[in-house]
């Protein structure tokens, strides 16, 4: 499917002819974050008959490739939504990166050096292809409605509900929402309409993104790697990043400097000689290519002070922004949706609705994802400062580190060409139950669950696949037979009979011995863990994870 050129039909809404309707949840913005949240919520709310409304001011998907790097954690979330495999099949899987100084390679790294994971460290796939797959999934869900060319023009909070004015080609209408989620990007209209701001740092540098289609292969063996050059001969004094995309397209990022003219630099006559120089001097030959898409951007690392304002919640770039190095934008936004979906569903279904307590669960979305945003901003800021030093001392440190990295592994840990996206461990979350037993710290409360290969009745399976099969709710993962007592949540028992830890990697990653149990949240983060749990301890930890204690 050529998702870049698909146009979605506008339909005249019945809302133009009736009084304002009250919706359980309205999401604004049909990008990767809004679509992920809409599909997630529709799946969770299907059994209760509640509906999800998604509004978008356009009738097309992302213009240009935009975000292209989707991380392992994001793919695991997409697996739960039913779109993971088609995206992996369509994308370019990779895990290896290489760093160069001038012409010479400094070192390589592998983002997934250990075996036993179903999904690759990353796939590269154009954002519009990801959006297209999510739209197809959304269309199959009867309780999810997408309205294209519906522009929110006003928003207010009244009696604990969000009130929206929406403009369409046929006129304006109003609606009310118990919960409103702004997923409308870095220039969020909803954020502006509510008079809210993002605070942070704008970096005085400019970068050119050029997507080019190359005839043939850059690498004789067809490998897919991330290459990053500091001070290459074909772009002296600056940096360059190269990535493979599907169908012969390559993403190239050229650092330009603050004085560069953005309009002039994204013209074909400016881009073509830069790409020609890279191919000749970086790969030693002239290679035919054509320009597919280009953009010039400035780095900014910033976020809103709070991601929740009464019934209005913010997610993705509407809530926080980072520089593109590290692929932390779209991936962190999808993880926002993953965190928020189960919490909104629990509130809407009355499973977290004790007086005042539902607010505690939604507040936890803001606190947890603000914590994750701060971690991403810190990593992104450090990468940007290393790539584009703004003082003589910073440049001396950067250059000395790069030269040391040729021979000394310790220096390689200091080189920062964009530390790539990893999921946040939610340390200090109010939803976590502290350890009462001794464990290694790797999968502590708040940590994302690690995948591992399993065998079910002679067939290959995966831990996360088994969890998805139980439904997107709390689960008690037990190493050994299921407990004799009635668990307040579904149990997944790795017991050596029906479900086997065939390589011992699950026990290793969870520091498990017979009887060890983990309470896992619906977003596959650890809520609590025990060596020998009691039903009372499991119930108390579940209540805490729902914000009920």
Please explain how this structure is put together:
The chain is an alpha+beta fold and 549 residues long. Among the domains are: 3-92 and 121-199 and 303-379, 3-Layer(bba) Sandwich (FAD/NAD(P)-binding domain), CATH 3.50.50.60; 453-545, Glutaredoxin. It is built from 14 helices and 26 strands. It has helices spanning 32-45, 72-81, 84-90, 127-139, 189-193, 262-265, 268-283, 329-348, 357-387, 392-404, 409-412, 463-469, 505-509, 535-545, and strands spanning 21-28, 52-56, 69-71, 92-94, 96-101, 104-110, 122-124, 144-148, 151-158, 161-168, 171-182, 198-214, 226-230, 239-244, 249-255, 289-304, 308-309, 312-314, 320-321, 453-456, 459-462, 475-479, 491-494, 499-500, 517-520, 526-530. The strands form five sheets. Strands 1, 2, 8, 9, 10, 11, 17 and 18 form an eight-stranded mixed sheet that branches. The protein has an eight-stranded mixed sheet with strand order 6-5-13-14-15-12-16-19. A hairpin with a 2-residue loop joins β20 (453-456) and β21 (459-462). α1 (32-45) runs parallel beside α4 and α8 runs antiparallel to α9. The protein is globular. It starts with 20 loop residues before the first strand and ends with a helix. The relative contact order is 0.12. The mean pLDDT is 93.
